[in-house]
């Protein structure tokens, strides 16, 4: 079935450090891929998405490229801020009408 | 304007009670969802309705019953609450399916933290 594997956390970085959170997905079909972010005490919100191979999603300095050859959608940011501290979820759409989420990666950015 | 709203935000109750969580979306979306997030932040789909019709029903105890009175509302009723039901429950909505049936962006409510004592 559909699945998403993302890097286990927690990840702790200093402000202005480079961030990568790895995500790979099962290759069934041609899914849309998403990164969602959950700030403390809040619901999930879409961070970025890509709907086809080689698409790059970007938002708020975060980027992820849909790589069909490696079935990956890694999240990157060049310089993290304290306000980026949150849980990040990678997700794939599926032909069975649902999103499948990874287990989430907790990011803590220290000043 | 709140896009997806849930009430209540917090719900504390005793084992064995029956409770409901309400969800409303004002985005004009056709599809709504319920998710359960456990203490380790793992997010699992429970139900989905498209135009008031049930389309996803994961392996969820039948004590959980969704009700969709119209496209904008999807409520979750839980009978005979158990300790293991303690979690955060999220409602979400999306507009349509993308090509190939892949779901479009889902918009999440703020969550309802259910604590069963």
Description of the molecule:
- The complex is a heterodimer of chains A (111) and B (117).
- Helices cover 0% and strands 49% of the residues of chain A.
- By secondary structure, chain A is mainly beta.
- In chain A, strands 2, 5, 6, 10, 11 and 12 form a six-stranded mixed β-sheet that branches.
- In chain A, β7 and β8 form a beta hairpin.
- The termini of chain B are far apart.
- The chains are: A mainly beta (111), B mainly beta (117).
- Chains A and B meet through β5, β6 and β10 of A and β5 and β10 of B.
Low-confidence stretches of chain A: none
How many H/I helical runs of chain A? Answer: 0
Largest interface: A-B, 27 and 29 residues
The oligomeric status of these chains comes to heterodimer
Q: How much of the residues of chain A is beta strand, in percent?
A: over 45%
H-E string of chain B: EEEEEEEEEEE
Quote the distance from N terminus to C terminus of chain A. Answer: 41 Å
For the report, how would you describe the main beta sheet of chain B? 7 strands, mixed
- Spatial extent as radius of gyration of chain B: 14 Å
Total number of β-strand segments of chain A?
Answer: 12
**Residue share in helix of chain A:** under 10%
Shape of chain B, please? globular
The stretches of 5 or more residues of chain B where confidence is low (pLDDT under 50) are: none
């Amino acid at each position: 079935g559909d699945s998403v594997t993302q890097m286990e956390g927690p990840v702790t970085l200093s402000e202005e450090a480079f961030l990568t959170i790895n995500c790979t997905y099962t290759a069934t079909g041609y899914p849309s891929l998403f990164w969602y972010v959950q700030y403390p005490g809040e619901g999930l919100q879409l961070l970025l998405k890509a709907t086809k191979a080689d698409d790059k999603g970007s938002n708020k300095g975060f980027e992820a490229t849909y790589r069909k050859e490696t079935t990956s959608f890694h999240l990157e940011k060049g310089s993290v801020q304290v306000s980026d501290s949150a849980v990040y979820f990678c997700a794939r759409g599926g032909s069975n009408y649902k999103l499948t989420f990874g287990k989430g990666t907790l990011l803590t950015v220290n000043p | 304007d709140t896009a997806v709203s849930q009430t209540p935000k917090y719900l504390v109750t005793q084992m064995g009670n029956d409770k409901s969580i309400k969800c409303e979306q004002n985005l004009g979306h056709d599809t709504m969802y319920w998710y359960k997030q456990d203490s380790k932040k793992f997010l699992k789909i429970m139900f989905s309705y498209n135009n008031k019709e049930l389309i996803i029903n994961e392996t969820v105890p039948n004590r959980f019953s969704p009700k969709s009175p119209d496209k904008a509302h999807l409520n979750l009723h839980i009978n005979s609450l158990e300790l293991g039901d303690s979690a955060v429950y999220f409602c979400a909505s999306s507009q349509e399916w993308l090509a190939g049936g892949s779901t479009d962006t889902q918009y999440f409510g703020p969550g309802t933290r259910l604590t069963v004592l």
